[in-house]
Amino acid sequence: MRASRFFISTLKEAPSDAEIVSHQLMMRAGMIKRLGSGIYTYMPMGLKVIRKVEAIVREEMNKAGAIELLMPLVQPAELWQETGRWDKMGPELLRVKDRHGRDFAIQPTSEEVITDVVRSEIKSYRQIPLNFYHIQTKFRDERRPRFGLMRGREFTMKDAYSFDRDVAGMQKSYKIMFDAYTQIFTRFGLKFRAVAADNGAIGGTGSHEFHVIASTGEDALVYCPTSDYAANMEAAEAVASGTRAAAGAALTKTSTPKAAKCEDVAKLLGIDLKQTLKTIALTAEEDDGSKKYFMLLLRGDHELNEIKASKVPGLAKNRFSTEAEILEVYGCKPGYLGPIGTKAPVTVVADRTVALMSDFVTGANEVDFHYTGANWGRDMAEPAIVADLRNVVEGDASPDGKGVLAIERGIEVGHVFQLGTAYSESMQATFLDENQKPAPLQMGCYGIGITRILGAAIEQNFDDKGIIWPTSLAPFQLVLCPMGMDRSELVKAETEKLYNEALAAGIDVILDDRGQRPGAMFADWELIGVPHRVVIGERGLKEGNLEYQGRRDTEATAVPVAEALAFIKGKLAQ
Amino acid sequence: MRASRFFISTLKEAPSDAEIVSHQLMMRAGMIKRLGSGIYTYMPMGLKVIRKVEAIVREEMNKAGAIELLMPLVQPAELWQETGRWDKMGPELLRVKDRHGRDFAIQPTSEEVITDVVRSEIKSYRQIPLNFYHIQTKFRDERRPRFGLMRGREFTMKDAYSFDRDVAGMQKSYKIMFDAYTQIFTRFGLKFRAVAADNGAIGGTGSHEFHVIASTGEDALVYCPTSDYAANMEAAEAVASGTRAAAGAALTKTSTPKAAKCEDVAKLLGIDLKQTLKTIALTAEEDDGSKKYFMLLLRGDHELNEIKASKVPGLAKNRFSTEAEILEVYGCKPGYLGPIGTKAPVTVVADRTVALMSDFVTGANEVDFHYTGANWGRDMAEPAIVADLRNVVEGDASPDGKGVLAIERGIEVGHVFQLGTAYSESMQATFLDENQKPAPLQMGCYGIGITRILGAAIEQNFDDKGIIWPTSLAPFQLVLCPMGMDRSELVKAETEKLYNEALAAGIDVILDDRGQRPGAMFADWELIGVPHRVVIGERGLKEGNLEYQGRRDTEATAVPVAEALAFIKGKLAQ
C-alpha cells in the first residue's frame, strides 16, 4: 500500500471524552471516529487491524472444526420471548418495531437464533457434534458507554455455539474451544490469561474468561504462579489454612469511643487489623415480604465478595440492612455490632478465616464499645454457617494446594461457557438418539470481542509516542520511510525496489510517499504503532545502508541494502 | 474441506412461499434459512458464495483506489434530519429509540454518515479525490419482502462514496467506478449489461444501473445490438423517425358503439392499431389546490412512460383525472376523448410519434363516436407540447442513430450515481481550494447488492437439477465423489491423494466423505451447483481412470489418473 492511496489522519491531541489510553491513541491514530455515544466508524487504519483479528479468529475456529454462517442482526421478538430473555434483558436489548408494528431485537448475541436454526436442522445423534459461529455486528445499549471500543454500544463479536448429545460431549467441545482460544490469543502476540469464572446470569455449568493482561484492566485475575490455578476475583476460592488456636486471653469489654471501623479500632488498641472482625448486616427479603437477618463476619483486613455471599443458603436475594432494621434487630447502631449475644432471628455466617480466629476483637453491640479476647465456643456459639465469603488476597494459599496466590489486572476479551440445556429445553431443541428417544441438545457458547481486542492490545502495548502493535495485529507490518523521495532518484529507486520486494514476499508494507518532513512522518508511524520501520536516505545509501528500527528499539540499526529484505523477514518472524 | 466437517442440508421440496427459482433453489440447497419475513440466516453453503462475491468486489474496489472503512449500522437521526431524509424516507427506514429515547436509523445506506466523516476530515483540495467504501449489513423495511435474497429486508451491500473538487473530477471518479463495476461483473462470470438510468429520488446528474441478464428479471433493458447504446426502460429515449405524411383522407365522424379502447376501435373499423390514438387525461394539482388539465396522446400500440410524463413542464406532480373531472372538462365520458375541439383549460401533449401521424383515428369527445382521417393543423391545432412520452419498443430507432433497439430482461445488482452537491450542500461538506475559498464537495455514490448477486446469478444459471454456479462464485469449485471410500482402499487412497493435490494447488475443493449413496450424492452436488465434479470409482481406477463431469455436461469424461489435476486445472481456467 502507498500512503498516498490510503487514508491517514492523525491528531496531536485526543478529544476530551477519551478517558483511557487506548481510546485516546485510537482517536489520535485515526483508527476510529465517533458517530454517537458508544458508536464508532472504523476508519481505514482501524479496520485493517480488525480484519487481522478476524482473520486469525476465523482460521483457528475453522481449524477447530467450527463452521461459519451469518445470523441476522434484526431478530424477531418471538424467539427472545421463548427463552424469557425478551423480558429479562432490560434496556440493554435494543428493541425496534417494523412497519407492521412487529417487535424485533437488534442482536446483542445469538443463542436464540442459532437454537432455532439447529432445532429444525438437527434431527439425529448422527448429525452432532456441531459447532457454528459467526462474526457479526452486535448492539448492546449500555447505560454508560465509554472507553472507545472497550465499552461501546455497537461492536463486532465472534460468537460460536456447540451442540452435543451429552455432557461429556459438551465438555469435549468446550475443551476444543478453550484450546482454540489459547491458540488465537497466542497468535495475537498478547500476554493473556484464562481464568475460571462464575457462570452468572447466562446459566450453565462452567465457564472461563480470557483476559488480556494490562495494569489498567478493570478485572482482578487471581492465579498461582507455581500451578495452573487461575480464576477471576468473583470465582477465586479463598481457603483458610491452619487450625484455630486455643483461647489465650480473657473476654474484656473495652471502651472504643468513635471507633466504628476496624481500622480505627486496631489503631486505638494498638493491635493488628487481622485481629479484628468486620461485621456486615444483611437482610434477605422473601417474595411474601417476610424478612430474614444475617450477620456476616469477615476478618478486618478482608473484603466481602458479594457473589459468594449470594450463594449462602437464604441469601440468593439480599441487601444491606437499613439502620432502622439494625436498631430493631441488634439494639445497637451500625459500627459496633458483633456476634457475642446475637440470637434469633439473626443467623451468624462466618467467613472460613474468621471461623479459625481466636482472641479476636469484635463489636459489643453497644455504641463506643468492643470486646477484646473474644473466642468461638467460649464467649459465643460457634457460627451457624461457615462459608467462603471474601475476596482472595495476594499470598492466600492456592485452592489446589500448590502454592500461594498472586493477583494481576486484566481486560476480558473472550468467554467460553458450558450452557448445558438452558436454551435447548426452553426452545425444545432436541435430537433423537439411537433408540429414537428425544433428548435436549447440550450446548456451549463461546465469544470473542473482536473490536475490544484492539483496545485491550493497546492498553497492554503503548508508550509515550503511541501504540506498539504486535506484528500479527498491526495495520501494516512494515513502513518504508524514504527521505526526500521526490528529490533523490537514488532514494526513489531503492525505495521502490524494496517496496516491491516486500510486497512480493507477502509482507504487509506501507510506503510513505506523502512527502512529509521526517519528524512528522516518524511521529505518525510511531503513533499508529507500525512495529517495523525502514528509513531510506541518500546519505545511508551512499554507504550502502538502510536504517531499520523496531517500534520498541531506542536506536536504529544500519542494514546493508542487499541484506535488507532478509533482515526484515527475520524481524517479522521473531 | 471435507463434507463431514461442513454443514450440508438439502431439501427435496422448496417451501411454498418461495415463488421464484433462485429462492426455491437457495432454500433447497441449504444456502439460506428464513428467520422472519425478508430476514435470512446465511447458512455455511450460502455464506461461502457471499464471501466470494465480497472478495471480488473488495479486490476490484481496492485496485480502483477506493479505501475500505466500516460505518455503523445504528445511525443518529440528527444526520438524517440534516438532509431531510428522516422525513422523506417513509416506513422503509427502520427507526429505533435507544434507552434514553434518542432516535436512530438502522442504515439502509450511508450517504449521511460518510458525508459527516468527510466534512470533518477533508479540509483542503490537496486531500481529494477520495473514494471510501464499506461492505455492510443494510436494512430496508420493504412493504412486501419476497423472492428470498432478491428483495429481502436485511441484506449486504457494498456502498462507495467519492469526493471531488469539481464536476470533471466527479465524472472521472464515476468513470473509474463504472470500469471497476464492469470488471467485477466480468469476474463474476455473469452475463450483464450496464444501462443508463433515470436519477430518480436520490438526485444528481447521471447514473447507470448494472443488470444481470435473466429472462425472469423484473426490469426491461433497452439496448442497440449494433452500438453502445443501453438504457433502462424508464430512461430509454423513444425517437420518432421520418416526417409527417400529407393528409390524404377526409375527416369523418364514425359510429363506434361500445368501442372505448383503441384495440376495439381498430378491430371494428378493420384498421391497424398504429392508426389509432390513445388519449390519457391527467390532472396536475398545485399546492394551492388549483388544477391544470393535460391530454396526453400516444399511438394506440404504445405505452405511457410515467417517468417521462412527469418531466413534461407542469406535470411534475400528476395523477389520472377522475371521471367527474373528465365529464366537466371534456363534456364526455372517458374512452371517446380526442384532441379535436379540445380547448383551454386543456393542454394537449403529443408523443413524438403522434406528432408525425396523419390520417389517424381519434375519439370524437362524444360517447360511441370516433373520427377517422384526422390530421394535425387541418382538423385541429398542432399539439401544444410534443414530448417523449412512451416506452420504447423493439425495433425503434436507437437514439444514437446507429441501429434499432432490442429489449431484454435484467435484474438490477449495481448502481452508480453522480450525486453532485446534493448531500454536501445540505450537510455543509466543503473544502478549501487554492485560494482558501470554500466549495462544496462533488460526490458520487456506487452500490452493489452483494447478497442480491446470489439470486441474480441463479436466475441466470440453473436447470431442472439445480443451480449452476460460475466457477468464480461457486461455494466450492470442485467436488470429489468417491464411490465406496469406506470399502475400497484403492478408492480411498486415490481420493485422498487427489484431494491433497487439489488443496495444494489452491483449488477450493470439497471431498464428499459422508458415505452417501451415489445417486443422493450426485443429486446434492447438482442441486448445490458445484461446477466441476470428479468421481473416483474402483472400476475406473483399475483402468487407470477417473471420471470428470462439468455441471453443464451431459456426459462424463474418463481422465487418466496421472493427468487428473492438470485436466481439472484446465477446466477451472476456462
Brief description of this entry?
2 copies of one chain form a homodimer. Chain A is α+β, with helices and mostly antiparallel strands. In chain A, α1 (21-28) crosses α12 and α2 crosses α12.
Keyword list:
574 residues, YbaK protein, Rossmann fold, 3 domains, nine-stranded mixed β-sheet, five-stranded mixed β-sheet, 16 helices, 31 strands
Characterization of this structure:
The structure is a homodimer of 574-residue chains. In chain A, strands 3, 7, 8, 9, 10, 11, 12, 21 and 24 form a 9-stranded mixed beta sheet that branches. A 5-stranded mixed beta sheet of chain A has the order 16-14-15-17-20. A 5-stranded mixed beta sheet of chain A has the order 28-27-29-30-31, with helices on both faces. In chain A, strand 30 and strand 31 (557-560) form a beta hairpin. The longest helix of chain A is centred in the N-terminal third of the chain and has 22 residues, at 167-188. The first copy, chain A, has 574 residues and is of the alpha+beta class. Chain A is 27% helix and 29% strand. In chain A, helix 2 crosses helix 12 (450-460). Chain A contains 16 helices and 31 strands. The mean pLDDT of chain A is 94. Chain A is globular and about 95 Å long. The first copy, chain A, folds into 3 domains: 3-237 and 407-458, Bira Bifunctional Protein, Domain 2 (BirA Bifunctional Protein, domain 2, 2-Layer Sandwich), CATH 3.30.930; 252-387, YbaK protein (Alpha-Beta Complex); 476-573, Anticodon-binding domain (Rossmann fold, 3-Layer(aba) Sandwich). At the A-B interface, strand 1, strand 2, helix 2, strand 3 and strand 4 of A face strand 1, strand 2, helix 2, strand 3 and strand 4 of B.
